[in-house]
Amino acid sequence: MSVKIQEKPNQKSLQPKESLRTIRYGKEVFSFERLDRKSDRPKIRITVHRDCRVTVHAPDDVDEEEVLNAVKKRTRWIYKRIHEFKAQREFITPRKYISGESHYYLGKQYMLKVEMAGESQPGVKLLRGKFEVGVHQNSPEQVKAVLNQWYTSRAKYIFEKQLTELLKQTLWVAHRPVIKILPMKTQWGNCSNKGNLTLNPALVKAPRECIDYVILHELCHIAEHNHSKRFYLLLSQVMPNWKSVKEKLDAMADYLIHVD
C-alpha cells in the first residue's frame, strides 16, 4: 500500500476502450474514467486528481447506471475541485535552477546561489539560509542534477533518523524495515509485502511532521494491509492529527514535486 500524490492512470479498467465517460454540469463538460475496485471496500469512490483527471472506482458488480448516478450527485463538488486545482497551477512556474530561485528543504524555503566549483567536486552547502551549489558547468541541467543528488543523500539520512524515532511507538513492527529511495511522480511512499519502505526523495522538502506521517502511514500497512477502519484507527493512535498533516502535505505537492 502507498501514500499517493495522485493515482497512476494505469489501473485496469472494466472496459478498456470505453472506460472514459463524460457528464455535463451547466455549460461545463468533463470526463471521468471508471476503474475496478475490490468489493470488500465501499462501493463507489470518486477522486479528482491534481492533474484534473476524474476517476471512479467501483466493483465489477456495480452497474453503469449506479456509477453514473453517483457521479451526477457529486458533479458540483467535482466541478469545484477541478477549478481549484486549475487555479493553483496558474501560480506555479517550472524551476529554472538559477541563482535567486527558492527551493524547499524540511518545509523551509532557501535561496539558490550557483557558483563555479573550480577544481572542487560539484556539491551543495546549506549556509546562511542559502543553497550554495557548486558546479563545473553553469547549466540548469547540471545544477538540477547536483541539487537532486544532495536531496537524495539528505533524504536517506533524514528518513532513517525519523524511522528510528517512530519505531519506538510502532510496537507491531518486529523488524526494522529497509528504506529504498526512489523518485516517484505519483507517490510519497509505499510498503512492500515484506514490510520494506520505498520513499520519495522529494518528501525531504516537506516539514518533518509530513515525513513522519508518510512513514507512519506505511508502517501501519505492516499491520493492516489495506485502508480499512482498523488501519485508520491504528494511524490515529500513533498520529492523532494525521488528517491535518496530510492536508498540509497535499497542499504542498505541486511546489515540491510537480514544478520541475
Describe it for me?
The chain is of the alpha/beta class and 260 residues long. It has 2 domains: 2-90; 102-257, 2-Layer Sandwich (Zincin-like). The protein is 37% helix and 24% strand. A hairpin with a 5-residue loop joins strand 4 (45-48) and strand 5. Helix 3 packs across helix 4 and helix 4 (208-223) crosses helix 5. The longest helix is centred in the middle third of the chain and has 27 residues, at 140-166. 24% of the residues are buried. Residues 6-18 have low confidence and may be disordered.
Number of strands: 12
Helical stretch tally: 6
Give the strand order of the largest sheet, numbering strands 1, 2, ... along the chain.
Answer: 1-11-12-10
Q: How would you sum up the global shape?
A: globular
- CATH domain fold name of the largest domain: Zincin-like
Distance N terminus to C terminus? Answer: 26 Å
From N to C, what is the helix and strand string?
A: EEEEEHHEEEEHEEEHHH
CATH class of the largest domain: Alpha Beta
Q: Report Rg.
A: 21 Å
The number of domains: 2
What is the average per-residue confidence, as pLDDT, rounded to a whole number?
Answer: 86
Strand count, sense and barrel status of the largest sheet are:
4 strands, mixed
CATH architecture of the largest domain: 2-Layer Sandwich
Helix percentage range: 25-40%
Secondary-structure-based class equals: alpha/beta
Strand content: 15-25%
CATH superfamily of the largest domain: Metalloproteases ("zincins"), catalytic domain
